[in-house]
Amino acid sequence: MSIEENGAQGFSKKYWDTNYSKPKEMDGIANAKEHVHYMDLSFRLDFIDIESIIDFGFGTGHLFKEALKQFIPYKAHGIEPSSYVFKKANVEKFRPCASAKVKLENIDLKTWALKQTSRTKAYDLGICTSVLQYLTNEELEVCLPVMAQKVKYLYLTVPTDKELNAQIEDLEFHDTYAIRRSRSAYQKILKKHFTFISSRILESKVHFDESSTSFTDLLYRF
User: Fold this and answer.
1) CATH classification at residue 204
2) Distance CA 48, CA 15 (A)
3) Which residue of 63, 85, 135, 161 could cross-link 139, Cys pair, CB 3.0 to 4.6 Å?
4) Which domain holds residue 198?
């Protein structure tokens, strides 16, 4: 696979034409509002205010846009490595209100992670959907600890090897770009940096404080 087709560096037009040929049927696009509704209810239930958001690979922008519309953060940052889809993004279409500071950056996740400093403030919420399956193990080792430093909560979806198989069998869709990993493999590396507080929401272990966490029902933390 060439550099321009690599997930970390940004997929070329070929990837988007192949994998997004039926966008209205895709998770994160067709059901973007439902994803955001799930986030909103989860945080609202525990009185968590989401005032800043970063999307680690906003792609077509559907989910990122819905999240900004729902939470209306004062600050938002979207990164996307693919120049092909980044050129289609319009910051004003993402901005939920006139006062919101919205930044879009054409950069891959590893480069973003390497340039972070201790002075950079953490975001309340990070969004990372269908991204990690395109990163190598080395890239994950670099990116995840920095992500845990820079977000308090992470909304994460990533297909496992079994789910990728199901896509082939049930949907006749074969993502040839995705790296195949088991559920346990993802949990092993993620648990170094995050606590799973629901099937999709993770809390950073850097920012977690048992005495003050909003998710107080620790019996269900795993």
Assistant:
1) 3.40.50.150
2) 37
3) 135
4) 3-220
Model's pTM, two decimal places? 0.86
Domain count, the chain: 1
